[in-house]
Amino acid sequence: MLPGQLPEVDEVLARAQSENFTVAAGVLPYRIRQHLMALYGFARLVDYAGDEACGPREGLLDLLEADLGRAYEGTPRLPLLRAFAPTLRACGIPREVPARLIEANRRDQHVRRYSTFGELLDYCVYAANPIGELVLYIFGRAEPELIRLSDRICSALQVLEHCQDIAEDFRQDRVYMPAEDLSAFGCDESDLAAPTASAELRGLVWFEVDRAVEMLRAGQPLIARLSGLARMAVAGYVAGGMATARAFRPAGHDPLAVDIRPNRRRMLAEWARLSVAPTTGLGHDRVRDAYRYCERITRTQARNFYYGIRLLPPVKRRALSAVYAFARRVDDIGDGSLSDEQKLRRLRQARQDLDGVRPDAKDPVLTALADAGRRLPLPLRAFHELVDGCEADVRGTRYETFEQLTHYCRCVAGSVGRLSLGVFGHEVTGPAAQRADALGVALQLTNILRDLLEDRRNGRIYLPTEDLRDFGVSLELDSRGMFSDSPHELAELVRFQVRRIERWYAEGLRLLPMLDHRSRACCAAMAGIYHELLRHMWNEPDSVTRGRISLPAWQKASVATRSLAGMTS
C-alpha cells in the first residue's frame, strides 16, 4: 500500500481539460491522443506526489520510481503507470527521461530557492524539459537538435507557470523567482505574500514573462522542423505559452491579485496560425511591450493626467507614459509602507537606474525611457530632482517659507514639466523651460492644497509655517481626525493659497502658444483639470477640510475635449 492518498485516474485526467497541455489533443487521432493523455496522467501523478500528497512525499516518489521500473517490465501496480506502460514500450522511451520528472519533485522537497536564473534552468531540465522530449518520442522525432529546441519551449512554459503561481508557491515556502532578479528589482520575499503586487514585483514579473517569450521564440523553429500531427501538437503547446504570456498584460502583471489564465479562444487562434505558418505568429517587440506596460500604469493610475496624455500622437503618448510610470514609481516609494531606511535605499537605487538607462534594461519602465530618450530630447537628469523631493518627503521636511516650498515643488513637479516639454519635442531651455517649470509648480501647489487633510493625517504638512502663523492656523487634528482650527481662518488660508497659485498658472499657461497643436491640447487638458479643481477650492474653501476632492469624469472629459478643440480658457 502506498503511503498517502493518491488521486483517482479520472480525477487526474479531468484536470487536463483546464490546462494548456492538451490544447491540440481534440483534433489528434485516438492513438496519439491516448499516448499524450497517458503522459499527462503520469506527469500529474508525479506532481501530486511531490506537491500535494499527505504523508511522506519522498516515500511516495521512491515508490513511483519503483513502479516506473516495473512499467518497463510490464508489471506496474498503479493504474496511471499501467496506462503509461504501453506508451513507454510503443514509443521506445528511455527510462531516464520520465525518471527526471520524479527527480525534479525530489528536489522540490529540499531546494526551495534559486540564486540565479541558470540554477532555475537546471531545475527545468528535470521539471519541464522531459515533457517535450517525451512528446517527441511519441511522434517518433526524438532527435538531438529537435530536443534542444523543445527544451527551450518547455523551460519557457515552466517559467510562465512559476510567474502565474507566485502566491501559491510562496504559501508552500517555495520561491522560483531567482534571488538575483528579486534583488535587481528591489523586491523582498515579503512582497510575494501581499494581496497585490508592488510596482517592483510587477516589473520583475514583466521581465520574467519577457524572458520566457524570448525562449519560446528561440524554440519556435522546432515547429517548422516538424510536419503533420507532430507540428500541430507542438504548435499547440507554444500557442498555449504565448496566450499565457499575453494574459499577463490586462492583469497588469499582477499574479497576486489576479488569477492569470490564457484566453482559450486566443490560444486556439494562435495555435491555428502556428500550425499553418510555423515561422510566424510569435511577433515580439520588447520595447513595444515595455511601452504597453507603462501605458497601462498611466491609464489606471494617472487619473487626471491620462485625459491629456491620450490626446498626444502615439510616439509622444508612449514617451509621456514612460515618464509618468517612472515618476509614479518614485512617488510610490515615498508613499509606501516601507521603513524610512528602506525607502531611502530604494530611492538611491532609482538614481542608479537612471544612470544606466538602456534599451536592453531588465526593467520595462527603463526600457521604455531609453527608447523615448533616443527619439525625443528628454532631460532624464531632471528625474534626480524628483528623487530629491521624494527624499525630503521621507525625511519629513517642513517648509518655513513659500520660497522653500516652491523649491520642493520645482523638484517634484517642475522636473516633470520640463520632461514633458522634451516629450512635446521642444528644446528644454529658455522661456519654454521656465514656463514648463512654473506650470509644474502650479499643479503641485494645487495638489498640496487639495490633499491638505489627507497629508495631515499621514503626518505631512506642506504649507509654509509662516503662512500658518499669519492666519492663526495650526492644522492640528481632533479626535475625529478633522482640523480643529476655526473654519473661517481655514477658509481664509485656502483662498490666500488659491490666489497665489493662480499667479503660477498665469505664468505657466504662457507655455501653450509655444507648443504644436496636439502637445498644446495635452498640456491644456492636464493643466485645465487641475485649474478646475483650484476654482472649486476658491468657491468652496471648506471642501479641502472635509477630504480629498476630485472632478467627475464627465467634467474631465469636457476639459479634454475643449483642449483638443483649442478652447483652453
From TrEMBL:
Pathway: Carotenoid biosynthesis; phytoene biosynthesis. Pfam families: SQS_PSY. Signal peptide: none annotated. The keyword Transferase applies. InterPro entries: HSQ_synthase_HpnC (IPR017827), Isoprenoid_synthase_dom_sf (IPR008949), SQ_synth_HpnD-like (IPR017828), Squ/phyt_synthse (IPR002060), Squalene/phytoene_synthase_CS (IPR019845), Trans_IPPS_bact-type (IPR044843), Trans_IPPS_HH (IPR033904). Keywords: Transferase. PANTHER family: BIFUNCTIONAL LYCOPENE CYCLASE/PHYTOENE SYNTHASE (PTHR31480). This is Phytoene synthase. It comes from Actinopolyspora erythraea.
